[in-house]
Amino acid sequence: MSKTIQFAPQAGALGKICLQLPNTNDTDLDFSRNSQATVRNKDGILDTNWSANLPRYNFEAGDPCPSLLVEPQSTNLVTYSEDFSNESWIKRQSTLVLNSSISPSGTNNMTKIIINNGVDASSAGAGVRKSLTISSATTYTYSYYVKKAEWNGINLLASTSSGSCTGQFDIENGVVTNTISNGDFTNVLAKIINFGEDIYRVSLTFTSGVDTSLVIFLWGFNDNPLNDVGDGTSGLYIWGAQLEEQSYSTSYIPTSGATATRVAETVSKTGLENYINSSEGVLYLNSKALFNNGTFRNISLSDGTSNNRVLFYYSSNTNQIGYSVEVGGVSQAGGVFTVTDITDFNHYAIKWKENDFALWVNGVEVLTDVSGSVFPTNTLNRLGFDNSSAGNFLGALKDLRVYNQILKDSELSLLKS
Q: Each residue of 199-245: pLDDT tens digit?
């Protein structure tokens, strides 16, 4: 196997993603994100002040290997994401205890929410809530980091005068127990993700209806989501509220008095014609998408145009991936394939040579094409986390390699671990 380009998330600098191969500074990938961001480090701490234009090598819970995280622009519309004592958060029949547990940031700044003694949390509307203005017929996701104390469940509610939705979560076992929608709210999805240290991130996605005055509401329970009664001391911990115009929860964007935006990330490099063999080769990825369906998300080798490129993509269809080889603006090979879950890490390899094209997934050949031309020498000179100009890759990447010759089937079958 002759690798000419290899990336693994090991080193980076401001505006640069360092490659393991070739090991020269002038081939490092150009990286851009003109804002701070957050990243989970190797110690399991959420660093909320990651420098602008510095790549994020993110460690997911339970995974010892980091991945390069690439996300779109997103804005947290909640203006006080951690300070629930602020007057913009309305407290009803409940008591807040500030700085009562260690948050994902490693600081003792989670807030304990306690339902007052004798209060039925559900029927009394007890808990914390916030009013915001949104757009009609638009998809939003709102989320919190939560941890059980005496109570082991939490409800998230989003409501307008024309519709509502609720997600119910077991934050002891890390499962969604129920999702409810009413009125003109559609596309409702509840999700829970294990952050580690008994902390979960819970989220509720919905498409709004005609009314634009939204209330987001949170309250806890112990075993019974509908009629648990407070005792004045029992509760659970919350931190990091976020509402964003996305179909899934992106990485946390802290706020302290105003909305805040994380700018989109871009990755590309031109001038790589000496490291990409235009007449034959393999593009290999170990990656996952951040969400399912809706948009195309791409990684490509190209000449900077859509006329000449080797393209891998997550499609707009659920759990569908695909590849395309285009020479002189004419498709030579390609196709789509459905995997079990594109939001899990999978191994993908595209092989190209005259009359010999294929897509491999997790060490298995799934698509072939035995008729087609390849590029003139030195045509391919750009690696981009896009389709050559748009359709940015949005996902996590553990490994990327370019081989300057096609690999044997026995070698391609090994690209799965």
A: 999 999 999 999 999 999 999 988 777 668 899 999 999 999 999 99
Q: 359-398 as b/e, with b when 16 or more CB fall inside 10 Å?
A: bbbbeeebbebeebebbeeebbbbbbbbbbeebbbbbbbb
Mind listing the pLDDT tens digit for each residue in 247-260?
999 999 999 999 99
Rounded to whole angstroms, how far apart are CA atoms 308 and 124?
A: 63
User: What are the distances in angstroms from CA 73 to CA 82, 107, 133, 303, 381?
Assistant: 21, 26, 20, 26, 28
pTM (two decimals): 0.96
Q: Which two tokens stand for residue 244?
A: 């964003």
CB 348 within 8 A of CB 360: yes
For the record, the structure tokens of 31 come out as 């990286």
- Rounded Cα–Cα distance for residues 118 and 134 (Å): 35
Please report which helix (H) or strand (E) contains residue 238, including its range: strand 235-244
- Per-residue tokens: 113: 């929410």
Question: Which of 7, 23, 19, 104 minimizes the C-alpha distance to 59?
Answer: 104
